[in-house]
Amino acid sequence: MKCLKRWWTPVVGSTLIAVVAACGGDPTETTQDRPAPQIHAFDGAPSSITSGTNVRGNNVQGEVLLEWDVEGAASIALFANGDPVDLSGCESADDGEDCLAAGSISLSPDEPTTYRLDSVNHEELSCVFRDSGEVSNLSACDSAIVDVDVMAPALLSFHSDTDRFDQDHEFVISYEVEHALEFELGILDGDDFEACEVDSSTSRCSIDGDDAGQLTLRDLEEVESILLTGWASNGADDGLGEVELGDVTLELSALGTPIVRAFDADPSHVAFGGSSEFSWHVEDANSVELTSDADVVIASDLSECFDVDTNGEGGCEVHFAEEAPEMTITFTLVAHGDEGKESSPMEIPVVLGAAPEIVSFDIDPVQLPETGGDVTLSWETVSEPSRLMIIDDADPANTLLDTDDGTGIEYCQSSADECDFEADSFVVADVEVNTQFTLVVSSPLGSDSSNISVTIEGAPAITSLEVDGQDVVLGPAMVDAASADLTWTTEETDSTELFRAERPDDGCSSPDLDWEEVEDFSGEASGSDQISDLDVMHLCFRLRALGEADQSASAIFEVVRHPEIESFDAAPQTLQTGDQLNLDWVAPFATEVEISVSPQGSVSASDLGECSDVDESDHSGSCEVTIQPGSPAGDVTFSLIAYGFDESEVGPEHTVITIGSAPEVLSFGSNPSTAPTEVADITLSWSTTDGVEVSISDDDGEIFFSDDAAEVAGGQHIVQDLDATTTWTLVVSNQYGSDSASATTFFGPAVESLEVNGEDALGGEATVLTGDVFFEWTTSNADESELERADIPGGDDGCEDADGWELLESFSTGDGDFTEADVVENGCYRLSLSNNAGQSSAVTFLVTEVPYLTSMTTNVDSIDGENGGTVTVEMSFVGVSDITVRAWYRDEDGNDVDDTVICTQNNLNSGSLDASNTDEDTVTCTHTMDGPCTGLGCLATSDDPHSDTDYIEYEVEFADPEGDGGVEITDEGENVGVDW
Asked: What is the pTM of this model?
């Protein structure tokens, strides 16, 4: 076996390098006595590797394997960019004796690196390089070079301010590609990848082609969601620099298409019989649908989980069965919007199982001699926990065993993952004082704990411990006040101490408790005392009995405040079906409440399911419920039970509301409604249902009031000598609500009829075709009239708020007509009336002019499908500024095969559009189709979807500058057939 020496030897610049050499050489022997070494081979593979952070945020590091074959070397040395490399990790290629003759080493450079292998024929020599980079000591040295290129991993990213696109417009986002030798971006549809074309103005997806540019999506009319993705490569030989499809994606959803932003379950691990609170945040949705792949173990009705509020948020509580197999349940949420639209599903897992439980916890022996000794703790559990702890209550900060922090590795004899938690034992050595041991088992599904004690012969012992008469050895004491009586007895005890601490989530057995001594405690060996300041939900206490020779005994117990119901109210006290009701409660020391209703069904179960929370700071809670339609009239009783810690409860407490029907006005009118004279007596008449009070008021205040049942149900009231137009308001009410109606008695001139191009405009609006507009009206009590026009106000204001009125014409009669020529814009109009008595009135209305198509024809009946052809579509419009002409490819049943836009106002074949022209504008649009090819505009080849086309139908969408317009399709006789 060869002997190896390893030492540091200086080279140029006094640098020390690690040298591998064979033993037995003679340092006094000259290099001329030995032949020069020869490096027959020095190779590195791969020649290019990856180093850096990839798109997933992971650090990737490639390796290069350097291999060599050297003859006649007494030592070799390896350098990376001139710095020495430690060869202690090299692997020999000749039976593992050494790496001098043939060896290899794997290295992970993080920058481009030149590796140089030097071999010399004497252990104390080295290759010496002059400034030129050439090696000296040529008679004693050989050197070889390997270059390794190190590349950063390719990166892709999309940049967009929004992930929602408008289906009617192109969608443009930015992208960036770094460190990529080649890349491709595109659309992922299932398993199909559609690459974006470079610098295309017609493809559905196009990119600039540069490393940083813009990606454009087109023709999105029928698309509700798009997944953008890509692939790239940095060109490294190790393949670690690849970006695969799916590594980086951007999911886009159409405006108006529902989308799930967030979906969560808390907790995500649930014990049998437990529950989890599901919550979601959606957009463009009015409901959600929650489903699961294991409904049989779910005790709740998931169909009740559908609500979405105005912020797009919602939630529900899901309860699980008491008995079920352990499993992971996948819940799926889909958001639903208008017109049957729905979101992509989002899934979350919920783990259902049993919380760990301690079946037994024993100690042997239960008593030790005065000198102390070892004890063995043994236990048995069910539903294996993920963590097990044993705590010495005499020294809680010193955890004897904790499989979570590594102290249980020795006990497990291997690693924490291999512990058998369900039945095992643990030896505690050298126990010298009375000690209580606590076993705690836990998992994400819950926890359990148990105590057991060992006593030292002749040492103190606590023999009984009660709080308000309750034995706290068996569990927490429930108390109803801020103070309680503590009674205890001990043996072999000189005095006692009492400590208290706030209870943490993991219970009074936690090693992290911050114990504070109760200073006013009596300290008697046995006796009674009062513990106070119990105005918290639960507290931990520790009684310590002190004896001789530093012996002591401890007992930890818990005091829990029983929950209380301080108040439970409902408002309003009277309401009708469909109304909302607020329930409010104050329940000190309660963790949650439960509300029920009688008769059942008066409020939905999902509404009441939301009524459970209690605020920890002020013990209050509230919720809003809706009285279900169809609920019977009468009293409804709500009952509240408050639940506290350790399954304690109080209640029920009741509150009562009354359901009834709000009144309704059946009729209310004025006779006469239009008074022809300056002074008149008028009669107001009405009829109502379910009212107990009725009142009528004029423009200045109340003039009539009655609670007489007959008059409330229906009656008349005469107003004498009325001399001005007056609007009357009738209000009927009862304890459940009110209803109202208005009627007007009109004095002065009135418009009896008003038509615009034959359409009734008294409703405040009329629509006409671009061109001449004819107004015609009739009146009563009017001697003069005039017609005015104004521009439409901005914002949400109506024509009543228009200003800058321009007089079109005045008339010396009340009735009249008027023609306004060449109307091409929407406008507000006002018809004003007056009479010789000095009375006047006016009505305002909106006239919307719309452009229209007068004709649409094609120039051929059919085209040759094999060779293609050209179709010219001729159209005539009035008042149009924008058009989009689309060709629809239909099969023999009239179904859509495909469609394409062939013209807009910007690329017409002839003619032009002028919205201000009330004469016809005639334009033509040319549709040219090729023969055999693929893509839009092609009709032949069996691979092309257009081969199913039986005829082509043309559609034009048109509008004026104000956005008014319509859509027309060619008549059946103008469709163009396709002959195959």
From this structure: 0.45
